[in-house]
Amino acid sequence: MSRIGKKPVELPSGVSASVSGQTIEVKGPKGTRSFTATDDVTLSVEDNVVQINPRGMSKRARQQWGMSRTMVANLVEGVTNGFKKELEIQGVGYRAQMQGNTLKLNLGYSHDVDFTAPEGVTITAPKQTEIVVEGIDQQQVGEVAAKIREWRRPEPYKGKGIRYKGEFIFRKEGKKK
């Protein structure tokens, strides 16, 4: 039995959900998101509570049960609070700044790296060494943050690069004489 799937998803005030077939659409103060579940589960909305139930007890139905509940919970979280990833830049001369919708990164290359924010994601640089990625889609926010981090991953010897805020980088000892 799915322990996650059993738990219903409660809709906070200001959030509404509607089910049509296997698609659930959630509307909130930050926007609208939808999710299409597989045929292995049934979705229902009663009294500001979204309930997900499996059709049968096959292994696939039970897997989809928990996953679908988590996806619906993420939709509700996204339209109420949104998602946020914070990145830190460490390294001499490494910095970031916003110019319109484009993030300009100086990362020690012979050229500046220009990263354009996709639709639905907001990128801000409150300091030269900080980047904040925000949006209502958790998957898209994480993907944009990972693409920015990919330009200069933190290296293990000096720790230079772009890292998630609070990320621990395992440091290595350099050469010995």
Write out key terms for the chains shown.
single chain; 177 residues; alpha+beta; Outer Surface Protein A, domain 3; 2 domains; four-stranded antiparallel beta sheet; 3 helices; 13 strands; 22% helix; ribosomal protein; Ribosomal_uL6_bac-type
Order of SSEs, N→C?
Answer: HEEEEEEHEEEEEEHE
Which radius of gyration do the C-alpha atoms yield?
A: 21 Å
Number of helices: 3
Strand order in the sheet with the most strands: 11-12-7-13
> What level of helicity do the residues show?
10-25%
The CATH superfamily label of the largest domain reads Ribosomal protein L6
Family: Belongs to the universal ribosomal protein uL6 family.
GO molecular function: rRNA binding; structural constituent of ribosome
Domain Large ribosomal subunit protein uL6 alpha-beta: 12-82, 91-164
Organism: Ruegeria conchae
Descriptive report:
By secondary structure, the protein is α+β, with helices and mostly antiparallel strands. The protein has 2 domains: 9-81, Ribosomal protein L6 (Outer Surface Protein A, domain 3, Alpha-Beta Complex), CATH 3.90.930.12; 83-164, Ribosomal protein L6 (Outer Surface Protein A, domain 3). Helix content is 22%, strand content 38%. It has 3 helices and 13 strands, in the order H-E-E-E-E-E-E-H-E-E-E-E-E-E-H-E. It has helices at 3-6, 59-80, 138-150, and strands at residues 9-10, 16-20, 23-28, 31-36, 41-46, 49-54, 83-90, 95-99, 102-106, 113-116, 121-124, 130-135, 161-164. The chain has a 4-stranded antiparallel sheet with strand order 11-12-7-13, with helices on one face. It has a 3-stranded antiparallel sheet with strand order 1-6-5. Strands 2-3-4 form a 3-stranded antiparallel sheet, with helices on one face. The protein starts with a helix and ends in a 13-residue tail after the last strand.
